[in-house]
Specification:
Radius of gyration: 20 Å
Helix content: 10-25%
Number of helices: 5
Order of helices and strands: EHEEHEEEHEEHHE
Structural class: alpha+beta
Distance between the termini: 37 Å
Largest sheet: 9 strands, mixed
Number of strands: 9
Length: about 260
């Protein structure tokens, strides 16, 4: 009886960026075009077989990513990962770009192995015809020093239920925030936040609440009460998604395979 040769299944990370304006978000949706779907269709076109990709997170509709990471499996070797990335860029639309594809261990996971994620949110007080769809225009001045003092409170907590979208399927609302601050950026400000994980809608809710601090509507103690209430209704309004960017996802070095092509 002829022995059946087993083909090894290899796993790869795709590093990519996208402008989320024309998408219903990262995850496949029944009534809209998603980034995940578009990426899978490009792989199917090139590899001639259905390929499922798993992302490091699920950005909402209209949210952008300067760096998103996703993994996929393929039975057998791929001749040239750099050539595959180049070919993907040829078939993908202009608002999605693949930076590189790298081999990882078979058990590496784009979502569960990520050690941190960083988001940036851009706010401006000036009308700009060139950046209006990438920044959130607000009226009036902001007390940035008060907002940065408020950021320090975020490091004292791990339960961020008050900033989470209601009725999600996660097992815990605990997150470890490592960095959070406002800095000048162009004609406005940029809020940068890094954590080991984020809840659905969390960054946009945090930004909206910090803007209330900057406008003098919420005190430092008031923010503390919002966090400790563990009630989404107590926090500020979520800001629009078009000014939010996923900018970095980090992983432990040991999950990567050295023979990168």
């Amino acid at each position: 009886m002829e022995e059946i040769k087993q083909i090894d299944v290899n796993r790869y990370f795709i590093y990519l960026g996208y402008n989320g304006k024309n998408y219903c978000g990262w995850q496949v949706q029944p009534n809209g075009v998603s980034v995940q779907q578009t990426l899978e269709e490009a792989l199917f076109t090139l590899l001639r077989q259905p390929v499922s990709v798993t992302g490091a997170g699920r950005t909402d509709a209209g949210v952008h990513a300067r760096t998103m990471v996703a993994h996929f499996d393929w039975a057998g070797p791929l001749d040239s990962l750099s050539l595959l990335a180049e070919k993907m860029n040829r078939v993908l639309p202009k608002d999605i770009a693949v930076y590189r594809i790298v081999p990882v261990r078979p058990d590496a996971h784009a979502r569960f192995d990520a050690t941190s994620r960083t988001y940036k949110y851009y706010v401006t007080t000036q009308k700009d015809p060139f950046t209006y769809d990438l920044t959130y225009k607000i009226h009036g001045s902001l007390d940035i020093e008060a907002m940065n003092r408020a950021c320090q409170l975020l490091f004292e907590y791990i339960d961020f239920t008050s900033f989470s979208k209601l009725h999600t399927d996660v097992k815990t609302n605990n997150c470890r925030i490592m960095h959070a601050c406002w800095t000048p950026e162009g004609t406005g400000w940029c809020f940068t936040i890094t954590a080991d994980r984020f809840l659905r809608n969390m960054v946009r809710a945090v930004v909206g609440t910090l803007l209330d601090v900057g406008r003098g509507k919420l005190s430092q103690e008031g923010l503390r009460q919002v966090i400790e209430a563990k009630d989404r209704c107590k926090a500020g309004t979520s800001v629009p998604g078009h000014a939010l960017f996923l900018t970095d996802v980090t992983y432990p070095e040991e999950i990567f395979v050295i023979n990168n092509k």
